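[step 3/7] inverse_fold.run input=structure_tokens len=380
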């Protein structure tokens, strides 16, 4: 689960990580009042959207007077950044930047530990630094039984600074951010940039955190921050119905039984140069009601150009599936083609049921996938 910058900064503050003064605003009027309340000449307006690269997209703006706050806030609220609408902005104290650093903790699965990354090239995309000047990123795996004791934090601090005051500041930040990361089951805690101000203070100007969804059951305070997007909403709905559903970016809706077959279906769609819109595993039962529910979830998605139903009948009976599909078709309005491939238990009975219907019936997986991809191409 991702959280907004303003939410992450709330957590930072409660763990003693310095952040600049800021006020959350929901409209232009609030932004103007926030500017007056902060009572500083320069402020930064920052769009609160759950995506990175806001700076590049125009979602971070340094402004110097009330009129500009009004104008830029107004245009920011009209913006979409990576497809996400801007419903909230932060009006923040503008800090005087001397230099920008990068600091993060994330999970290193390969080494089964937390990994810390630190770089004096902050502010820019860390992926770029990793690509062109990887030697400028200092990485260290944190032993979970050791954590971030003083000696380790100091050793890391000396990588960036020799001034003892700054060493002291970064040691605090390293230890506090690590504690925040561990105690809240985070999967990422990133400060980019961590700014050294002209006045000599370290401040987290940006804050990004994501949390392990599987640990949310024991992180009540973090759940409170949840703002599911439309896509996540769909995933939650599907989960509640007992499906496993993953939202993807394509236009071929998929209904498959079994995770393995679903993965193979995705692969074959890609191989045929099509784009799956989702991964949907309806599981092992052949209850027609389940088919009906799965169809309802798919038909809600207006990106779809075609639906591909790929069922292997083991315990699942193909005639049950066919009945579920027919019922769904009768009750729901489907104006896109639906390709069906049924194989296994009672496949002939299943196909017979679909014979005089609007479904495009295929006998093999390859045939079904080619049909679906062709339909998606035809629909443009
Ligand atoms: P991101 O683009 O979504 O990562 O947003 P950031 O919060 O990291 O802001 C992008 C960039 O804007 C930073 O790297 C800074 O260079 C600049 N910036 C952000 N806040 C301030 C500020 O208070 N003062 C100044 N001078 N620049 C800022
Ligand atoms: Mn940033």
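[step 3/7] decode complete -> sequence:
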């Amino acid at each position: 689960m991702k959280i907004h910058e303003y939410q992450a900064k709330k957590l930072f503050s409660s763990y003693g990580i310095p952040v600049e003064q800021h006020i959350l605003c929901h409209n232009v009027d609030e932004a103007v009042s926030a500017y007056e309340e902060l009572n500083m000449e320069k402020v930064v307006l920052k769009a609160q959207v759950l995506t990175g690269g806001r700076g590049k997209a125009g979602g971070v703006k340094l402004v110097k007077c009330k009129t500009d706050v009004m104008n830029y806030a107004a245009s920011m609220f009209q913006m979409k950044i990576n497809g996400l609408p801007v419903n909230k902005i932060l009006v923040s104290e503008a800090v005087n930047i001397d230099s920008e650093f990068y600091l993060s903790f994330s999970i290193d699965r390969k080494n089964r530990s937390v990994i810390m990354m630190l770089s004096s090239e902050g502010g820019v995309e860390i992926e770029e630094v990793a690509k062109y000047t990887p030697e400028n990123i200092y990485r260290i795996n944190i032993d979970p039984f050791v954590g971030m004791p003083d000696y380790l934090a100091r050793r890391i601090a000396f990588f960036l600074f020799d001034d003892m005051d700054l060493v002291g500041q970064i040691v605090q930040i390293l230890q506090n951010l690590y504690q925040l990361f561990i105690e809240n089951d985070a999967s990422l805690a990133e400060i980019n940039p961590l700014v050294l101000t002209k006045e000599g203070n370290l401040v987290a100007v940006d804050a990004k955190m994501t949390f392990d969804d599987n640990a949310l059951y024991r992180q009540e305070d973090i759940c409170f921050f949840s703002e599911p997007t439309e896509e996540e909403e769909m995933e939650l709905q599907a989960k509640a119905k007992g499906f496993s559903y993953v939202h993807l970016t394509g236009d071929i809706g998929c209904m498959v039984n079994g995770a393995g077959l679903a993965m193979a279906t995705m692969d074959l769609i890609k191989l045929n140069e099509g784009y799956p819109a989702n991964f949907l595993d309806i599981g092992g039962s052949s209850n027609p009601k389940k088919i009906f529910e799965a169809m309802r979830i798919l038909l809600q998605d207006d990106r779809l150009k075609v639906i591909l139903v790929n069922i292997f009948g083991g315990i699942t009976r193909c005639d049950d599936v066919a009945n579920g599909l027919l019922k769904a078709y009768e009750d729901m309005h489907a104006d896109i083609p639906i390709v069906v491939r049924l194989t296994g238990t009672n496949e002939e009975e299943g196909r017979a049921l679909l014979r005089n219907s609007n479904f495009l019936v295929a006998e093999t997986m390859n045939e079904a996938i080619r049909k679906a991809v062709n339909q998606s191409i035809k629909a443009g």
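[step 4/7] annotate
The CA atoms of residues 55 and 254 lie 36 Å apart.
DSSP finds 13 helices and 19 strands in the chain.
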